């Protein structure tokens, strides 16, 4: 409906503005301060990054409500990966926030999202620019595995801090005699991260094939 389409356009516009601000901020800071800007990336853009990622949870609700035709499972994996790495791993460990891997991860996320939300906004208005369609559904196949490697590296870097500080590790008192050692949870999640990458890349290839075919048809019709 027109109302739902307008709502989705506004959502995409808000995400585009947020990610564009982050991406532009990172580029300008790097050009101005060089490598010195990398260490405090999280402190300068972390708040906006967290707001954008929290807002992306709505995309799962969009699919469940039927107003977005994307597949639920791959999108759920992509969103939860970012939420876990950003809020659980990076946000909880101040020592990790200054690592260069955080800057690399944010750069990859925002590059993909600026392109994706630009494509989505145009698609809501019925505009399908073939080069943008190709870029949106091709670049993600190349950059998504790199972002997974960056996420895995961030988790590995954080492990010593979780081990020494005991963050999120839980030991229940008697009579339960049960404990959760969080570094083990993160190591298991590393396996889940790479297994999930297989399903997401498979979905990215199928989306690319479907949308490029649709884009070619619309171009011929115009």
UniProtKB/TrEMBL annotation:
GO terms for molecular function: very-long-chain (3R)-3-hydroxyacyl-CoA dehydratase activity. GO terms for biological process: fatty acid elongation; sphingolipid biosynthetic process; very long-chain fatty acid biosynthetic process. It is an enzyme of class 4 (lyase). Pathway: Lipid metabolism; fatty acid biosynthesis. It is a multi-pass membrane protein. The chain crosses the membrane at residues 7-30, 42-65, 127-160, 180-201. The keyword DNA-binding does not apply. It is found in: Endoplasmic reticulum membrane; Membrane. Keywords: Endoplasmic reticulum, Fatty acid biosynthesis, Fatty acid metabolism, Lipid biosynthesis, Lipid metabolism, Lyase, Membrane, Transmembrane, Transmembrane helix. InterPro entries: Tyr_Pase-like_PTPLA. One of its GO terms (cellular component) is endoplasmic reticulum membrane. The keyword ATP-binding does not apply. It catalyses: a very-long-chain (3R)-3-hydroxyacyl-CoA = a very-long-chain (2E)-enoyl-CoA + H2O; (3R)-hydroxyhexadecanoyl-CoA = (2E)-hexadecenoyl-CoA + H2O. Its EC number is 4.2.1.134. Belongs to the very long-chain fatty acids dehydratase HACD family. Catalyzes the third of the four reactions of the long-chain fatty acids elongation cycle. This endoplasmic reticulum-bound enzymatic process, allows the addition of two carbons to the chain of long- and very long-chain fatty acids/VLCFAs per cycle. This enzyme catalyzes the dehydration of the 3-hydroxyacyl-CoA intermediate into trans-2,3-enoyl-CoA, within each cycle of fatty acid elongation. Thereby, it participates to the production of VLCFAs of different chain lengths that are involved in multiple biological processes as precursors of membrane lipids and lipid mediators. This is Very-long-chain (3R)-3-hydroxyacyl-CoA dehydratase. The gene is Hacd4.
């Amino acid at each position: 409906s027109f109302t739902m389409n307008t709502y989705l356009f506004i959502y995409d516009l808000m995400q585009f503005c947020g990610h564009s601000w982050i991406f532009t901020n990172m580029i300008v800071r790097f050009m101005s301060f060089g490598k010195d800007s990398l260490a405090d990336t999280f402190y300068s853009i972390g708040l906006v990054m967290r707001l954008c990622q929290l807002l992306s949870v709505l995309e799962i609700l969009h699919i469940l409500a039927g107003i977005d035709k994307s597949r639920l499972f791959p999108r759920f994996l992509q969103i939860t990966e970012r939420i876990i790495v950003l809020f659980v791993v990076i946000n909880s460990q101040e020592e990790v926030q200054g690592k260069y891997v955080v800057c690399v991860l944010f750069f990859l996320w925002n590059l993909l999202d600026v392109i994706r939300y630009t494509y989505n906004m145009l698609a809501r208005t019925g505009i399908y620019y073939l080069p943008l369609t190709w870029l949106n559904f091709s670049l993600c196949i190349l950059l998504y595995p790199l972002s997974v490697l960056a996420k895995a590296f961030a988790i590995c870097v954080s492990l010593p801090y979780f081990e020494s500080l005991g963050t999120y590790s839980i030991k229940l008192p008697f009579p339960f005699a049960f404990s959760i050692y969080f570094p083990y949870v993160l190591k298991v999640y590393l396996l889940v991260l790479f297994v999930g990458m297989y399903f997401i890349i498979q979905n990215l290839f199928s989306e690319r094939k479907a949308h490029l075919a649709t884009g070619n048809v619309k171009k011929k019709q115009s």
